[in-house]
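User: Could you write out the 3D structure of this protein bound to adenosine monophosphate? I've included everything you need below.
Assistant: Certainly. Input first, then the structure.
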Amino acid sequence: MSFSQLGLSDALLRAVQERGYSEPTPIQQQAIPIVLSGQDLLAGAQTGTGKTAGFTLPILHLLSSQPQSQVQPSRSDQPKRVIRQSIRALILTPTRELAAQVEESVQTYGKYVKLSSMTLFGGVAIQPQIRRLRGGVDILVATPGRLLDHVQQGTVDLSQIEILVLDEADRMLDMGFIRDIRRIIALLPPYRQNLLFSATFSEQVKTLASGLLYEPQMIEVARQNATADTVAQKVYLVDRERKRHLLAHLIQTENWYQVLVFTRTKHGADRLVKQLAESRIPALAIHGNKSQAARTRALAKFKDGSLQVLVATDIAARGIDIIELAQVVNFDLPNVPEDYVHRIGRTGRAGSAGEAISLVCVDEYKLLSDIEKLIKQKPPRETVAGFEVDPQIKAEPIQMGRGGQQGRGQRARPSGQKPDRSRAERSRPTQSGQSKPARTAQSAEGEHSAPRRAARRP
Ligand code: AMP
């Protein structure tokens, strides 16, 4: 199948072609026609599948082919008043990095359409964001916390949102954002299109989806918790104190030049950077204690190839998207088995081959077996000559760093959330054809334009 069969406009096809994609990925083949048809979507897709283009392309198509009215309806005896353009699509992401990544995609694919976009996340000054919002934005990519800061200050207007995307919904819920998400949803107009993307489907994700989505189309491109086939996984058994030496050895002997290394804690990430420096291996860390500027700088250097090793904690690494990232190393195994899937999703993206290596010490055998159960695979276990395991060393409890699961629950709030508005409350004008899958953009637009416009009627 080619992109031109999906019903996207020429302007978008041109941008896709320039990006160098020859054909749509499976999630794009399935998601694009559904989004174009105006239906709600529940998509099971992990990162690396091309899901971002799966929703940004049709959103750009819909918004550019149905320009927002610039004229506010007014009493017939008054002159019509031109109003400021308001936000039409809201994409919520769990992390700043993912927000930046998604907005970059919006820019890339939206190169030839007249739509504006911006990111809204914390860790950077709020004033420039306020100024930018005042200028009018069509597509807003935001993390929930900073978006609510703007809501509180009255600097963002969500009342005209036509399309809502929850990207990596499972991760947002893991991070304790459920209450924030519900507060945001309550501010949106009732008639809108909702898209929910999640790599996994916990009960919490299902509950959120059932309250949010209206007769959704469902698609799933990879088995739940499946790891991408293009990633070769390997486990190196090694002693706790020798991990760093083994990592330096592998980087040097295997000539890895762009390695993403995961540690369990922020402190562990900083310590590893220093230890690698002792072996003359240039590395930088990104985690929640680093300023946004430092994180952005490190990521930029890593992406342009001037930084050999990027050490990251799970949360900070979300959204890192580098084409053909060949090596991902789990310096520590994650405590939550699903994080393993997310981590190794950094490599072998959209068809390119990658290698995910886990350095596993005696303390982590239980974590390893939990991961193997989840992914229903047993990556080969090996030892590297000179780094054989000392059977005398006994397992020790795993240090989690201050605050338990670091990075998690930063914005966690007390439970007792208000339930989401019922479907009946949100029900929109008849939207037939749920059972019809792919339709052409033209017919889809025709069908959907009524509810969309209805949302803007006073
Ligand atoms: P995502 O899952 O959205 O994070 O995308 C993963 C990677 O796949 C990104 O580097 C995209 O640029 C790339 N990608 C997206 N769509 C395609 C495509 N149709 N062909 C090749 N690569 C793609």
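The pocket of adenosine monophosphate is lined by residues 21, 24-25, 28, 47-53, 321, 323, 349-350 (CB under 6 Å).
User: Perfect, thank you.
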